[in-house]
């Protein structure tokens, strides 16, 4: 719901400062933009969600212009705020990294020398349940006051389900600088098609997008691939739901409910 953050910054309700290598929506809304280096311009230790390897990322170039690494920026801010004598500010950042990676069985020195190390494979088959197994009927959820089985709550007949499946080209917003903006278009079932331009509206806001009829999309569902902007430049997540989900309190990012109407304006 970045449009509300941008509106609050424009009104002066908040002071928005960002540290980023790219001029994205957040930077456009910010009062202060501090240039940051990319991963090619800083040493770092990287762990992936998708494999069990720890990687030492070596910079291949110095940060351009006034771009400043995160650790340098934090130290500068600490000096300006008068807290540079705090133990966390006096600690060498690489000493902190070394302490963090030692739990893997390797030292930072070993990682630097080898470049890549393989970590122990986690136990994927033991679960924090009473039985230690996957619970299709969850006694654990029941004890916590949640339904033991997934509950489907259909939306109102007047609403459509808007979902945001990820695009392989836009796993992060910075990839817009490589592939450009995601197209401001949704896909709907032919039975739900009301024109080549539609307004998606709910209590949070509205977005104007192109529409494409697609028989692969179920009736009552609207599909927007990726997280981009509408035909007016409004972020598509202006209509996203902000309330936490019942399981784990995670936000309901990928599904919300909208009314679908034909556009009145021409684009």
Describe the structure in brief.
With 267 residues, this protein is α/β, with parallel strands linked by helices.
Distance between the termini: 24 Å
* Total tally of structural domains: 2
Number of helices: 8
Number of strands: 11
Flag low-confidence runs. Answer: none
Q: Order of strands across the biggest sheet?
A: 6-10-7-9-8-11
CATH architecture of the largest domain: Beta Barrel
Q: SS-based structural class?
A: alpha/beta
**Mean pLDDT across all amino acids:** 89
Order of helices and strands: HEHEEEHHHHEHEHEEEEE
Strand content: 15-25%
General shape: globular
Radius of gyration, taken over Cα atoms and rounded to an integer in Å: 23 Å
**Major β-sheet profile:** 6 strands, mixed, barrel
Tell me the helix content: 10-25%
CATH class identity of the largest domain? Mainly Beta
User: What is the CATH topology assignment of the largest domain?
Assistant: Barwin-like endoglucanases
Oligomer: single chain
């Amino acid at each position: 719901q970045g449009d509300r953050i941008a509106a609050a910054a424009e009104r002066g309700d908040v002071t928005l400062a960002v540290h980023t290598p790219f001029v994205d929506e957040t930077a456009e809304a910010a009062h202060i933009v501090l240039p940051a280096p990319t991963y090619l311009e800083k040493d770092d230790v990287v762990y992936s969600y998708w494999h069990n390897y720890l990687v030492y990322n070596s910079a291949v170039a110095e940060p351009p212009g006034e771009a400043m690494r995160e650790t340098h920026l934090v130290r500068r801010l600490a000096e300006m705020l008068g807290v540079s004598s705090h133990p966390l500010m006096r600690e060498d950042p690489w000493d902190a990294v070394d302490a963090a990676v030692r739990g893997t069985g390797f030292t930072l020195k070993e990682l630097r020398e080898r470049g890549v190390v393989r970590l122990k494979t986690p136990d994927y088959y033991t679960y924090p349940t009473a039985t230690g197994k996957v619970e299709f009927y969850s006694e654990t959820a029941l004890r916590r006051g949640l339904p033991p089985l997934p509950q489907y709550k259909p939306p109102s007949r007047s609403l459509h389900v808007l979902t945001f499946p990820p695009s392989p080209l836009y796993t992060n917003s910075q990839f817009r600088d490589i592939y450009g903006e995601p197209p401001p278009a949704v896909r709907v079932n032919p039975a739900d098609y009301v024109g080549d331009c539609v307004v998606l509206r709910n209590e949070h806001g509205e977005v104007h997008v192109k529409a494409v009829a697609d028989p692969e999309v179920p009736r009552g569902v609207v599909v927007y691939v990726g997280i981009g902007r509408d035909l007016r430049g409004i972020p598509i997540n202006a209509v996203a739901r902000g309330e936490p989900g019942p399981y784990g309190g995670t936000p309901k990012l990928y599904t919300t409910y909208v009314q679908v109407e034909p556009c009145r304006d021409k684009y």
